[in-house]
């Protein structure tokens, strides 16, 4: 569900407030839509809890965190979260509860691979070990 309720010229209704929107704002929103596509986590947390203990919601955001923070900082910042992804049994329970029909196990796998690549690039030793 989109938080932008109504587009009316250069004004929008956003959480019951009328806001002025500049051309630069519209350009930024279009750029974000292009970057994120339709496959981004809205942090509703309907996927939680994960029976094995994966921290799904923050792990779904890893690529965005890495983009914003840079690989080395992101890998260190998200270590506990991303190490929990190793507990994923790909049971699909999370995906079955997602109202946005996101491919959660597949996305977690991709984000874990990205995290592992960032750790290798930065030669960051692991301090957290996921346990089964």
Give an account of the 3D structure.
This protein is mainly α and 132 residues long. The chain is 48% helix and 10% strand. It has two domains: 4-36, no CATH class; 56-122. The chain contains seven helices and three strands. A three-stranded antiparallel β-sheet has the order 1-2-3, with no helix packed on it. Helix 3 (62-69) crosses helix 4 (71-77). The N and C termini lie far apart (36 Å). The model is unreliable at 1-8 (pLDDT under 50).
- For the largest beta sheet, what order do the strands appear in spatially? 1-2-3
Residue share in helix: 40-55%
The radius of gyration over CA amounts to: 18 Å
Largest sheet geometry: 3 strands, antiparallel
Question: What is the total tally of β strands?
Answer: 3
**Outline, from the CA principal axes?**
globular
Q: What order do the SSEs take from the amino end to the carboxyl end, as H and E?
A: EEEHHHHHHH
How many domains would you count in the coordinates? 2
Q: Structural class of the secondary structure composition?
A: mainly alpha
Low-confidence stretches: 1-8
Number of helices: 7
In whole angstroms, the N-to-C terminal distance is 36 Å
SS strand fraction: 5-15%
pLDDT averaged residue by residue: 86
């Amino acid at each position: 569900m989109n938080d932008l309720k109504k587009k009316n010229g250069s004004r929008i209704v956003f959480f019951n407030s009328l806001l002025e929107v500049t051309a630069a704002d519209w350009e930024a929103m279009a750029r974000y839509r292009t970057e994120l596509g339709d496959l981004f986590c809205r942090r509703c947390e309907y996927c939680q809890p994960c029976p094995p203990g994966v921290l799904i919601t923050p792990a779904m955001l890893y690529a965005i965190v890495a983009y914003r923070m840079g690989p080395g900082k992101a890998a260190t910042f998200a270590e506990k979260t991303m190490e929990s992804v190793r507990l994923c049994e790909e049971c699909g329970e999370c995906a079955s509860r997602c109202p946005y029909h996101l491919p959660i196990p597949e996305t977690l796998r991709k984000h874990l691979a990205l995290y592992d690549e960032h750790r290798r690039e930065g030669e960051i030793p692991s301090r957290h070990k996921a346990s089964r």
